[in-house]
Each structure stands twice: as structure tokens, then as C-alpha cells.
Write a structure and sequence with these properties.
heterodimer, A: mainly alpha, MetI-like fold, B: about 280 residues
């Protein structure tokens, strides 16, 4: 196990380097520069002060120098200073936004797995029944529905028509005066819609996947043997089949992270949630290079860590992997 | 089992048409094509014609889907929006499939360090939250539908590359490929003549599902205001005004969203249908 762990962690470094390289290239190859954006509106800005601004941001150096410099700072977890007027360190800006996005996504992830696994099992066990067909319809609609449209519809029904839930932000006005319980309730009310929509968006794929792995396991010989032994169906399914059917689902845990984080731009923008997605959107619009690069790197690293954790879980569950045989 | 006198395509078609949902979905897709080609004959309105006297009207016999905040006919705009969606879906997926196929072929056929480098590149690209990457690039470029298609394509080839590579690896050691090599066929001939045609069926499935994904991405980008720019109608940017007027005009939100839902659903169903029809384990 230790060997396996060391090998997996050693493999992270070239990937990390690749992530920084792609991030840097993508951002710097795009035509136009932040300095032009900032000065385009004021024709009085002289060429000399433009040059000074470029020098201030380090944009006058050759690209490889800029990259190595940025990489050197990254090694100390320093993402540079934001190009925005507040000129704050990017790390601070991101760190204050991470908790909300991450906790939203983790809650959505837990709900997603907690719902999709039973749904998938149920559909597989009652294959071709009315229930299975109903679930299939739900799955296909879930695949096809645009998240932002679903968010709009929910805002219309729950927010506008019935006024049950707030539709924007994470706090009500006067939040500071609420009691502790009142604050939790207020926060919960604001987050119900975004979390439900984030969960729904990825529920379909996962439950479909769970159904197919479960069906595959159920068609294997050892399951027939278990049934032939006269074991109860409940025991066959939960004790014999489920464990093996869950294995491939674990790897999906890591893969679903980039989708969730990517999706957060959309629902954070719609629901005005001050998270990383919203920050990224603002950063992109203002061409705040250090901020955009910082969030891209952190987003990719979160995925990397998610994949690593998923692989480790897999190795713990499946001895063939950790002993290097497959 | 295939019947005598039938080619593989007829066999595939027979199995595909046995799936009612897939056939219905295919009809919808064909109808959408016809709709977007004949858009100007289908509706009496100009998609960009502003009519200050008929602003935010609810659906009626004159305006099936109502009118928007500038008095434009929503039905007309949704029909014209189909053009954008179809164009984006096909061009973006075409780019993704082309890149993915080449990378997968090269990687699987040559193996060694070429394979290692290319597959690590795939791993790295898969780490990025795709939507972040697309957003970052699109927002820095001049708004244009062509950039959107290219960028969606450039960030969507990794799955195809992995699929093709796996196919190539399993085909490479098969007898007919060895035979071709012994007969002195060049690498290029073996790759394009013998391996590629056999590796294409999983790609077809993934491409069909990819069209659905690209349509969803484009509509999300347009919804955020960095995709297709008004006045050109796209389902995503009609929904942007839907959001702004959600308290007064539900029809602005409902119809373009339904259009996206039905279209994406159809591509997914056709993709699943192709997959089942090609799967030899699912004999009917």
C-alpha cells in the first residue's frame, strides 16, 4: 500500500507542472492585454504610462520569463496580486471564496451519491419494470435539461410565484441581527435551490452508471451460485452484488469534481452566490490574469486531489490494484 | 444474427429502427434541420424586427410563443436559434472528433514515449473544470460563434482520444493487421485502411452524445452573455432576457429552454440507440 501511495504521489508532479503550463499558455496566447482594457476608455493615457503599467504587471518581459517567475511564486503558494483596482493578493481573494463553493459542491456530491446509488440499485433489481422505465425517463430528462434553465424555472416557481424561497445571495437583509439558529435557517433557505439544482444536474448520469454496473454484476456466475444456494434476494444483492458494483462508481467520485466546480460558475452567477465561480467570472471579464490563472490551477488541483482520493479508496477496496496486478 | 444478403449497414439500420425512442428522436433531429433551413418560410416575422407596440405579449394565435422585451416574435427567434445550435453542435464535435481520433490513433499505434506524453496531456486536460477553461478563453477573444465552436472542440477531444486509443490497442494485435504488415503495408495504410474503419463505431456514439453536450455548453455561454451576441438569436441568449423579465414574462424562459431540452434529449436518445444497435451483445 505504501509503495502504491508513493508511486501515485510521485506521478502528481509532472501533472501539476503540465497544469501550470497549459493554464499559462491559454491565458497568455489570447490576443489583447489587460493594460489595453484598462486604458482603452481613457485616450489621455500616454504611451509612456502604458509602458509603465505593463512594466508594473511584469507584462513587458518575454513569455518564458513571465512563466518561470509565476511558477517560482506558485511554489511558495503565492498566486501574485490581482490586477483589479484593489490589488489584493490573489490567494486571499480565492481563500475567502473557496469555503462556500467547496461546501456547496461537497453537499451536492454527498446528496448525489446518496440518491443515485439507491436509485441505480432499484432500477437494476427491478429491471424493465414500470419503476425502471420511470427512472429511465427521469434520467434522460436529467441528462438533457440545461442547469441554468432549471434554475430559472425554480426561481420562477419557488421565488416569484409562491415566494417560498429567496432567489439571490446567501443572506437576508439584517442577517447580523439574527440569532444563531435564525442564521442557520436563513442560510439553509438561501442554499436549498442552488444545492438541489447542482445535485439534480449530475444525478442522472451517476444513477444510470450505477444501474449498468449493478446489472453487469447481477449477471455473473457467482450471483447465480449465491441464489442457487438459496440465499435471500436481499442478501444476494446487498452482501454479494453491491460491493462489486460500487467499485467502479468510486472512480466517478473523482471525475465528477471538475463538472461540479465548472457548473458552479453558472449557478453562482444566477443565484448571486459569492463563491469561486462568481469570482472567476468577474476575473475573466476584467482580464485579471493572476486571478484567472490562480483559480484555473486551484480548480485543476482540486480535481487532481479528488482523483487521487478516489484511486486510494479503490485501492483500499480492491486488493488487485494495490498489489500492482490488474 | 445477420441474415444472408444483408450488408452490415442494413443490419445496423434494422436494429436501430427497432428502438422506437431512437427513431422518434431521429425524426425530431431531422425536423429541426428542416426547421432551421426553412426558417424564413415558416414564420411571417423578422427575427430582429423591433415592434415597440407589441412588447412582452403573452402567447397568442399571432405570436405562438409570445413576444420579448423589444416586441420581437419569440417563436421566430427560437426557430432561428436552432441554426446556431445545430451549427455549434456539429462543428465543435467535428473538431473534437478529428483531434481525438488523430491523437488516439497515434498514441495507440506507436505506443512508447509518444503514447506516454499524449496520454499525460489527456490526463492534464481532464483535470481542468472544462467550463472554466472555455470561459477563460472565450471571454478574452472577440465574441464570435466560430471561436465558440473551436474552443468547445479544443476542450472536448480527450474522451474520443481515449476511446480510439483503446480500440487501436485491441485491434493492433489482431491477425488481419499482422497480415497487412507482413504484406508490406505502410504504417499510414495500416492505420487509415485497416484500423481506423474498425475503431469508428464507438466514436460515432461518443460524437452523437458530444453534439448534445456542445449544444448545452453553447447555450450556457450565451446565457452568461459571452456566447452568441444579440441581436443574433440563440436559445441561450433568449433565456438571458427570460431571466431579466422572469417576473412578468414566463414564456421568455419556458420555450427556448424546452427547445434545448428536446434537442439535447433527442441527440442523447439517438446516441444510445446507435450504441445498442452496434453492441453485438444486445442481439434482439
Amino acid at each position: 500500500m505504501a509503495n502504491y501511495l508513493i508511486k501515485r504521489i510521485a506521478m502528481l508532479f509532472p501533472l501539476l507542472l503540465g497544469i501550470t503550463l497549459i493554464t499559462f499558455t491559454v491565458i497568455h496566447l489570447a490576443p489583447g492585454e489587460p493594460v489595453e482594457m484598462q486604458t482603452a476608455m481613457s485616450p489621455k493615457v500616454s504611451a509612456a504610462s502604458r509602458a509603465r503599467l505593463r512594466e508594473f504587471y511584469g507584462l513587458d518581459k518575454p513569455l518564458h520569463v513571465q512563466y518561470l517567475r509565476w511558477l517560482g511564486h506558485l511554489a511558495h503558494l503565492d498566486f501574485g496580486r490581482s490586477f483589479a483596482p484593489d490589488n489584493r493578493p490573489v490567494t486571499d481573494k480565492i481563500v475567502e471564496r473557496i469555503p462556500i463553493t467547496l461546501s456547496l459542491n461537497v453537499i451536492a456530491l454527498i446528496l448525489e451519491f446518496g440518491l443515485a446509488i439507491p436509485i441505480g440499485i432499484l432500477a437494476a433489481v427491478r429491471r424493465d419494470s414500470l419503476l425502471d422505465r420511470g427512472i429511465s425517463v427521469f434520467v434522460f430528462v436529467g441528462f438533457a435539461v440545461p442547469t441554468f434553465w432549471l434554475a430559472l424555472l425554480c426561481m420562477y416557481f419557488f421565488g416569484v410565484k409562491f415566494s417560498w424561497l429567496p432567489i439571490s445571495g446567501i443572506h437576508s437583509l439584517g442577517y447580523e441581527k439574527f440569532s444563531a439558529a435564525g442564521r442557520v435557517w436563513d442560510l439553509a433557505k438561501h442554499l436549498v435551490l442552488p444545492i438541489s439544482i447542482a445535485t439534480f444536474g449530475s444525478l442522472a448520469g451517476l444513477s444510470r452508471y450505477m444501474r449498468s454496473t449493478m446489472l453487469e454484476v447481477l449477471s455473473q456466475d457467482y450471483i447465480t451460485t449465491a441464489r442457487a444456494k438459496g440465499l435471500q434476494e436481499r442478501v444476494v444483492i446487498f452482501k454479494h452484488a453491491l460491493k462489486n458494483a460500487l467499485l467502479p462508481v468510486i472512480t466517478l467520485l473523482g471525475f465528477s469534481l471538475p463538472g461540479l466546480i465548472g457548473g458552479s460558475v453558472i449557478f453562482e452567477t444566477i443565484f448571486a452566490i459569492p463563491g469561486m465561480g462568481q469570482l472567476f467570472y468577474q476575473g475573466v471579464m476584467a482580464r485579471d490574469y493572476p486571478l484567472v490563472m490562480g483559480i484555473l490551477v486551484i480548480g485543476a488541483c482540486l480535481t487532481l486531489v479528488g482523483n487521487l482520493l478516489a484511486d486510494l479508496c479503490y485501492a483500499v477496496a480492491d486488493p488487485r490494484i494495490r498489489h500492482g496486478r490488474s | 444474427m445477420s441474415e444472408p444478403g444483408r450488408g452490415p449497414f442494413q443490419e445496423f439500420w434494422r436494429r436501430f429502427t427497432a428502438n422506437r425512442f431512437a427513431v422518434a428522436a431521429l425524426c425530431i433531429i431531422v425536423a429541426l434541420f428542416v426547421l432551421s433551413v426553412c426558417a424564413s418560410f415558416l414564420t411571417p416575422y423578422d427575427p430582429d424586427a423591433i415592434d415597440a407596440w407589441h412588447v412582452l405579449l403573452p402567447p397568442s394565435a399571432a405570436h405562438f410563443f409570445g413576444t420579448d422585451e423589444l416586441g420581437r416574435d419569440v417563436f421566430t427567434r427560437v426557430v432561428y436559434g436552432a441554426r446556431v445550435s445545430l451549427k455549434v453542435g456539429f462543428v465543435a464535435v467535428g473538431i473534437a472528433v478529428a483531434i481525438g481520433t488523430v491523437v488516439g490513433l497515434v498514441s495507440g499505434y506507436y505506443g512508447g514515449w509518444v503514447d506516454t506524453v499524449l496520454m499525460r496531456l489527456v490526463d492534464i486536460m481532464l483535470c481542468f473544470p472544462t467550463f472554466f477553461l472555455i470561459l477563460a478563453v472565450i471571454a478574452m477573444l472577440e465574441p464570435s460563434i466560430w471561436y465558440i465552436m473551436v474552443i468547445i472542440g479544443l476542450t472536448g477531444w480527450m474522451g474520443v482520444a481515449r476511446l480510439v486509443r483503446a480500440e487501436v490497442l485491441s485491434l493492433k494485435s489482431r491477425d488481419f493487421v499482422s497480415a497487412a504488415r507482413v504484406l508490406g503495408a505502410s504504417d499510414r495504410r495500416i492505420i487509415f485502411r485497416h484500423i481506423l474503419p474498425n475503431a469508428l463505431s464507438p466514436v460515432l456514439v461518443s460524437a452523437t452524445l458530444g453534439v448534445a453536450g456542445a449544444i448545452l455548453t453553447e447555450s450556457a455561454l450565451s446565457f452568461l452573455g459571452i456566447g452568441v451576441q444579440p441581436p443574433t438569436p440563440s436559445w441561450g441568449n433568449i433565456l438571458t432576457s427570460g431571466k431579466d423579465y422572469i417576473e412578468f414574462a414566463w414564456w421568455l424562459s419556458l420555450f427556448p429552454g424546452l427547445a434545448i431540452l428536446v434537442t439535447v434529449l433527442s441527440y442523447n436518445l439517438v446516441g444510445e440507440g446507435i450504441r445498442d444497435a452496434l453492441d453485438p451483445r444486445k442481439q434482439q
